[in-house]
Amino acid sequence: MIDLYYWPTPNGRKITILLEELELPYTVKPVDIGKGAQFEPDFLKIAPNNRMPAIVDHAPADGGEPISVFESGAIMTYLADKHGRFLPADARGRADVNQWLFWQMGGLGPMAGQAHHFRQYAPVQVEYGIERYTNEVNRLYGVMDRQLANREWLAGDYSIADMAAWPWIVPFERQGQDLNDFPNLKRWFEAMGARPAVQRGAEVGEDLREQTNITSEESRKVLFGQTART
After folding, report:
1. Domain containing 25: what range?
2. From CA 74, how far away is CA 78, in angstroms rounded?
3. Which domain of life is it from (predicted)?
């Protein structure tokens, strides 16, 4: 029913984890971001921002034509709404989940991504960039740690907010962080990793990663050198 346009990145894994939690059938359509597959015309019809993940739902709830959705947060909301799980229907519960989902989309993901870039992928070491984004990720980890001090999951019950955040914590060492500094976050992280559906979702496409060396000069140009014109 679901075609998943995917590459094994934190944003991609959000969707595989949710699909596994929902126990939905899906077909992985690899999008090799290191070789520029995200710029192919057919993919841009589905994801005009030339970023994966994206989905095509061939069995939408209204019974009409297939629905395509891009942006990981929008995909998660769409699937949770359709199947009535992991996103509360009541206004207060829904607002709580959404604010943490949006926090991940607007904060944790972009800042951790910048930390990865300056610490791992930048061809020139820029100390200001490394310090700036390492510190900001540290601050965001602290926000999560405080939120988790008195609750098991980010928004009370287990939800898409937890699934969205967890893949971005997995590479904590590459972000210059130590989970021992954040005991509540560490407890949550380990509880997430113990869930069978999370384990299955995290393993999807591991074989694909070996196909592309994203530190090569060619891949750098594809991933980090695009403008509106190109």
Report:
1. 2-85+201-224
2. 6
3. Bacteria
